[in-house]
Automatic annotation (TrEMBL), chain A:
Name of the protein described by the UniProt record: Pseudouridine synthase II N-terminal domain-containing protein
GO molecular function: pseudouridine synthase activity; RNA binding
Biological process, per Gene Ontology: pseudouridine synthesis; RNA processing
Family, similarity comment: Belongs to the pseudouridine synthase TruB family.
Record lineage: Eukaryota, Metazoa, Chordata, Craniata, Vertebrata
Alphabetical list of InterPro entries matching this protein: PsdUridine_synth_cat_dom_sf, PsdUridine_synth_N, Trub2
Boundaries of every Pseudouridine synthase II N-terminal domain copy: 92-236
UniProtKB/TrEMBL annotation, chain B:
Predominant location: mitochondrion
Species for this entry: Phoxinus phoxinus (Eurasian minnow)
GO molecular function, one term: nucleic acid binding
Family: Belongs to the mTERF family.
Record protein name field: Transcription termination factor 3, mitochondrial
Superkingdom per UniProt: Eukaryota
Lineage, top ranks: Eukaryota, Metazoa, Chordata, Craniata, Vertebrata
Length: 351, 307
């Protein structure tokens, strides 16, 4: 017979996404979520106290008539298993973090609970990209590339127009596409590689520097401008440096005033939990919502281990893509498609 | 000459009832253990403490507290102190938490405890306020009379408050008497020099929200910087609503940015659609959205995801 606490604990297994506010370290969020889950688990009623045999001096029965005290055994509740002596039922819930976000950035942060932590590993190895919105401001350059640290230089920015910005972005994108092709270690002269490249399924093989698969400007209002970026293997400091370099290319300087992750693989910002919803029941609901996605990540991770099975992996690719279906095309105008689906990558050299 | 031929009775041998009763069984208690679990059922002190609600598991994590509790005798040590606390007016339900936070109240001598309570009464603290102070700050009665006197004098002098108001502040936050004075002095200096509050404004802030004295200096500075520089609220308004200094920074920031986005961020009392700082901070989310921001909770959540 399972207790309520054990049943609740068994439901806490899977992945979910959280919206990290700006200025908060990711570890604080992970600790808050763990303590909220533990609080809910330990508030479940404890099991009934165990009985132990104790010998007590009780008066003998009425048939004797006298008031002799004799030692007689009886089952009494023992205090040794009382929660105040034994401690709380649950000490630890294993909560793991996916791709980390530094304190300055905000956005979608994927967390895994219990058995979901194994799937987190698959998510990190799978071919997912992440979507960021970067806000920049022309006119200043700081040592940390963000708008709060010490200013190093100030420049004018009247000469900057949207046209010039688009040209600089196109140049950066071209360099990144070349890097993507080099790091994917695929010979583009083969038909297989060409087909993959056309569909936009190229992915860097092994360790690679941060690569942007998509980059465009969504808002230009000098001195402020906003870029939208899809990238792979990035760190948030690299993205702030990108803003700085965009400023340098335009013969001005720029600082980054905000880095916001809107998508991490299949986890989008609409389904991420905000601070008010970091309670156990909301988290369990979110885990249930993402159960299908979690299963697909795990499946794609399992199949990747068998290398060289070209045909089967291609079939699985199609299957996964048809199952997930055509999710809303938010990024229609981008030059490269978004990796919001979990896709397998063909092993190199088998083309 | 054979080996030692002591006749030991075999376990299966039949013996009479009188012989059976006279067999001395050594106690099964282990001489040492990591937890208090084996001793709870046998020791009267420990079982009575568990029934009172004392969290023995938490106490045994602290070094040496477990051994001290096992060695206590219920009728000699524990019972008189519990009766003393009950006479003082402390509620029985709170006794468990007080002992969990401060088990050393049981090792303090009864004369000392009575001397400190009578000292507080000479300073015109009423019986109920002393009981409330002990339940809020369990370590209070472990401090000597000189130390309590020192602290009360410091607060009266530094804050420049009347005796009545000092008593009020200390009754609401008795932790002030237990902690060291250096962080409090630093906080007061920060309020005066960095923030630029005047003397009477500081007095008003401390009497309304005494927690400002023991708040984290860095967090306090962060909140004040945001409220004064980003929200453009003058010193006088902040002094009028000091609850805003006690609130969470993220809450103030998100709500202010939401109001600014809606164009309703008006914090000057003379202008129309004025929003007072305590309403900004104190109301729960749904009431804030419907009354102050005039928007739905979903809108607020969607806005939070764009920050």
């Amino acid at each position: 017979m399972t207790t309520k606490a054990a049943r609740l604990f068994r439901r806490m297994d899977g992945l979910f996404a959280v919206y990290k506010p700006q200025g908060v370290h990711w570890k604080l969020i992970r600790d808050t979520i763990e303590s909220n889950l533990l609080k809910e688990l330990n508030s479940c009623p404890p099991p009934a106290p165990q009985l132990a045999v104790k010998f007590q001096l009780l008066s003998s029965g009425e048939n004797n008539g006298s008031k002799d005290l004799i030692l007689s055994p009886s089952m009494l509740p023992s205090l040794a298993n009382h929660p105040l002596v034994k401690g709380p039922q649950f000490h630890k819930v294993h909560v793991g973090v996916g791709h980390r976000l530094d304190a300055f950035s905000s956005g979608v942060l994927v967390l895994g609970v219990g058995k979901g932590n194994y799937v987190l590993e698959h998510l990190c190895k799978s071919h997912v990209t992440r979507d960021y919105t970067l806000e920049g401001e022309f006119g200043r350059a700081t040592d940390d590339f963000s708008h709060t640290t010490r200013v190093i230089e100030k420049t004018t920015y009247d000469h900057v127009t949207q046209d010039k910005l688009e040209r600089v972005l196109a140049m950066i994108q071209g360099a990144n596409q070349k890097a993507l092709i080099t790091y994917s270690q695929m010979d583009l002269r083969t038909q297989e590689a060409y087909e993959l490249a056309v569909k936009g399924l190229l992915y860097p093989h092994g360790k690679s520097p941060p690569i942007l698969t998509g980059l465009r400007c969504i808002h230009f209002n000098p001195p402020h401008f906003t870029l939208e970026v899809q990238c792979v293997n990035e760190t948030q400091k690299y993205l702030r440096k990108l803003i700085h370099e965009v400023g340098l290319e335009l013969r001005s300087s720029a600082v980054c005033s905000g880095v916001r992750r809107t998508r991490d693989g299949p986890f989008k910002a609409e389904n991420a939990l905000t601070r008010q919803h970091w309670t156990a029941d909301c988290i369990i609901q979110a885990i249930a919502h993402f159960r299908k996605t979690t299963r697909k990540i795990r499946k794609s991770g399992m199949y990747r281990q068998t290398d060289g099975q070209l045909n089967s992996s291609a079939k699985i690719q199609e299957q996964i893509r048809s199952e997930i279906g055509q999710s809303d095309q938010e990024h229609v105008e981008l030059t490269s498609p978004t990796f919001d689906r979990i896709v397998d990558r063909v092993a190199p050299g088998t083309g | 000459m054979g080996l030692d031929a002591v006749v030991r009775p075999s376990p299966l041998q039949e013996i009479s009832e009188e012989e059976a009763i006279q067999i001395q069984v050594p106690s099964a208690l282990p001489p040492d253990s990591f937890t208090l679990k084996p001793y709870v059922d046998q020791s009267e002190t420990l079982s009575k403490l568990v029934q009172l609600g004392v969290n023995l598991w938490e106490l045994e994590q602290r070094p040496n507290v477990g051994s001290m509790l096992v060695r206590l005798d219920f009728h000699a040590d524990v019972a008189p102190k519990l009766l003393f606390l009950k006479d003082l007016g402390v509620e029985e339900s709170k006794l468990g938490t007080i002992l969990t936070k401060n088990p050393f109240i049981l090792t303090e001598s009864l004369d000392n405890l009575e001397a400190r309570v009578s000292y507080l009464k000479t300073k015109k603290f009423s019986q109920e306020s002393v009981a409330v102070m002990v339940s809020k700050a369990p370590y209070l009665l472990n401090f000597s009379v000189e130390r309590l006197d020192n602290r009360l004098g410091f607060f009266q002098k530094q804050l420049g408050l009347s005796a009545e108001k000092t008593r009020n502040v200390v009754t609401r936050l008795p932790k002030l008497l237990c902690r060291s004075l250096e962080p409090i002095k630093e906080n007061l200096k920060v309020c005066e020099l960095e923030f630029g509050f005047r003397g009477n404004e500081i007095q008003h802030i401390v009497t309304t929200v005494p927690k400002v004295l023991i708040a984290n200096k860095r967090k306090l500075t962060q909140i004040f910087d945001f409220v004064h520089n980003t929200m453009d609220v003058p010193h006088s308004l902040i002094a009028k609503f000091p609850q805003v200094l006690n609130a969470k920074f993220l809450r103030i920031k998100e709500r202010h940015l939401f109001l600014e986005y809606l164009g309703r961020a008006q914090y000057q009392p003379s202008q129309p659609n004025y929003i007072s700082l305590d309403r900004l901070v104190f109301l729960p989310d749904d009431v804030f959205c419907s009354d102050v921001a005039l928007a739905t909770l979903e809108d607020f959540e969607r806005f939070q995801k764009t920050l």
